[in-house]
């Protein structure tokens, strides 16, 4: 079966043989995708004109209601999405829930939050600015929805969440969406879009999907559009320098890879709640989605006196995780999504091993449960130990996109700060400590290079939302190596789909424009 593309209000099957999407456990070809023959320029123009106009005719609260209907539909079809996740991504039930339920939760969150924007169609920012001695000439800042299309170029690891965490705020803003999912796992995103189209929830042109290469996509974007890219730093660099993106100053948001840290404070010694909470979270981060999360813990910073005990505790828990075909009883860790990802992970692991000791896993002859190692894409969960601190190179630079993490002992708070910062910009750091003086020094010193810092102590206990969990109400993104993008953060996300304009004129025109506007302060509320 070849998955059709949905563009200019039609289902179009791409030409040629296309590319096969495989089951990463059995190697079986499941479906094929092709974008050949799709007129991308026409598709984007149809989205801008037909979809954009229809969405902008609705108010924020009407669009929020449509998100509510989408969330209901996705919830009703959850079991089918779990099945595709299992077959195309080798997802365990927990992995599929992370992606699919995460998507539904996020859409619901925007459906709820969007109601607060009421019957308006744009945003008014701040108060009137006096520009003359009398009221005759004033200014008002507005945030106006983009007239173009929101183009999403997505990564393979979150086919569901990656689509909806972007689509929800864009649609709420009144901007049509055009998604190009990553080829290896495009099936789930395509199915979700097909279901939403079939249900007739959105007006024609409000959502489009192209599966396959679509390598000419960026040739056709304009200054009215926004491109939101999620993927590797290498591809991101190509997007930033794309001649059409540069020439037309196309707005570009980048969520790239990241060498995130977990940091144990000096007080997080064996036997404390903070130590146990760190161990639990490290194991969860290494195993959920088989470590294929942009937010996953890659480096574990521990006081030199605690590091070995931590290595033993994490290794002990990893030994109890069954790795194999998620269809087999008791399996907790599945494969990577493809043989190509497995090869990339082995390559990265080989680099890390040049400066690390293997404390758990890393067995090239490891046998997954219920699967043939020759055709499947498994990587054994692997814990490394690097005593070179800041002097190490690969540990701070190489993101192995799989179940691999490295313990790096640190000498004191200044050293921990320097090592965390050596990630050159990360999505998240989690800190396990109840030591107020340590936290007061560390958190502000790393905050400018991290999109999110999660602090866990005994009082927070198990109530935290998780190192790797992205909450729709909180900012997601990170500076530097992490791409410099910003997503989510509740209604703040709408800012990317609006553009600020100050209108200068008499009070009558400003009053008229303000009548259709809601206070932009609500975005940060
Ligand atoms: P990737 O190879 O960079 O691909 C990402 C997307 O870009 C895919 O849809 C790919 O399409 C597309 N693409 C590649 N070259 C293109 C071009 N010239 N024109 C248009 N599209 C192009 O990344 P990936 O391997 O899918 O994802 C894994 C990476 O994503 C990891 O490094 C991870 O850390 C990062 N990630 C980051 C976040 C975040 O929020 N920060 C979230 C998830 C993942 P094809 O698949 O068709 O090649």
TrEMBL record:
Residues annotated as domain Aldehyde dehydrogenase: 11-446
Disulfide bond is among the record's keywords: no
Organism of this sequence: Aromatoleum toluolicum
Keyword Repeat: no
InterPro entries documented for this protein: Ald_DH/histidinol_DH, Ald_DH_C, Ald_DH_N, Aldehyde_DH_dom, PaaN-DH
Name under which the protein is recorded: 3,4-dehydroadipyl-CoA semialdehyde dehydrogenase
Pfam family, one: Aldedh
Keywords noted in UniProt: Oxidoreductase
């Amino acid at each position: 079966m070849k998955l059709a593309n949905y563009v200019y209000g039609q289902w179009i099957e791409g030409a040629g043989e296309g590319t096969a999407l495989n089951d990463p456990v059995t190697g079986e070809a499941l479906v094929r995708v092709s974008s050949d023959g799709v007129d991308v320029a026409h598709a984007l123009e149809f989205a801008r004109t037909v979809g954009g106009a229809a969405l902008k005719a609705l108010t924020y609260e009407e669009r929020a209601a449509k998100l509510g209907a989408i969330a209901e539909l996705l919830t009703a079809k959850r079991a089918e999405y779990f099945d595709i996740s299992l077959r195309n991504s080798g997802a365990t039930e927990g992995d599929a829930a992370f992606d699919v339920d995460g998507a539904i939760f996020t859409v619901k969150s925007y459906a709820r939050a969007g109601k607060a924007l009421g019957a308006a169609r744009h945003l008014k920012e701040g108060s009137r600015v006096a520009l003359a001695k009398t009221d005759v000439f004033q200014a008002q800042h507005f945030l106006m929805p983009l007239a173009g299309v929101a183009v999403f170029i997505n990564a393979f690891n979150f086919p569901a969440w990656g689509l909806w965490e972007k689509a929800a705020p864009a649609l709420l803003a009144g901007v049509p969406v055009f998604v190009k999912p990553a080829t290896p796992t495009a099936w789930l995103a395509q199915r979700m879009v097909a279901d939403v189209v079939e249900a007739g929830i959105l007006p024609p042109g409000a959502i489009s999907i192209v599966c396959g290469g679509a390598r000419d996509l960026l040739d056709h974007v304009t200054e009215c559009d926004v491109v939101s890219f999620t993927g590797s730093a290498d591809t991101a660099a190509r997007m930033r320098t794309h001649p059409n993106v540069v020439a037309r100053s196309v707005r570009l948001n980048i969520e790239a890879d990241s060498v995130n840290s977990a940091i144990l404070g000096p007080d997080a010694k064996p036997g404390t709640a903070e130590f146990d909470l760190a161990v639990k979270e490290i194991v969860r981060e290494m195993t959920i989605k088989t470590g294929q999360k942009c937010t996953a813990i890659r480096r574990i910073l521990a006081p030199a006196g605690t590091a070995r005990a931590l290595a033993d505790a994490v290794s002990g828990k990893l030994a109890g995780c069954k790795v194999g075909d998620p269809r087999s009883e008791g399996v907790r860790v599945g494969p990577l999504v493809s043989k190509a990802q497995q090869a990339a992970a082995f390559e990265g692991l080989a680099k890390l091993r040049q400066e690390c000791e293997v404390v758990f896993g890393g067995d090239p002859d490891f046998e997954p449960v219920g699967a043939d190692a020759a055709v499947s894409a498994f990587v054994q969960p692997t814990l490394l130990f690097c005593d070179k601190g800041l002097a190490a190179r690969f540990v701070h630079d190489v993101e192995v996109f799989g179940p691999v993490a490295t313990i790096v002992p640190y000498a004191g708070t200044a050293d921990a700060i320097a090592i965390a910062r050596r990630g050159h910009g990360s999505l998240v750091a989690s800190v396990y400590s109840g030591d107020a003086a340590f936290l007061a020094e560390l958190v502000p010193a790393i905050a400018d290079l991290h999109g999110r810092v999660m602090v866990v102590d005994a009082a927070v206990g198990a109530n935290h939302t998780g190192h790797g969990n992205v909450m729709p109400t909180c900012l997601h993104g990170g500076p530097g190596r992490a791409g410099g993008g910003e997503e989510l953060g509740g209604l703040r996300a709408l800012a990317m789909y609006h553009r600020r304009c100050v209108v200068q004129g008499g009070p009558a025109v400003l009053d008229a424009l303000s009548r259709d506007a809601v206070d932009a302060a609500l975005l940060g509320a």
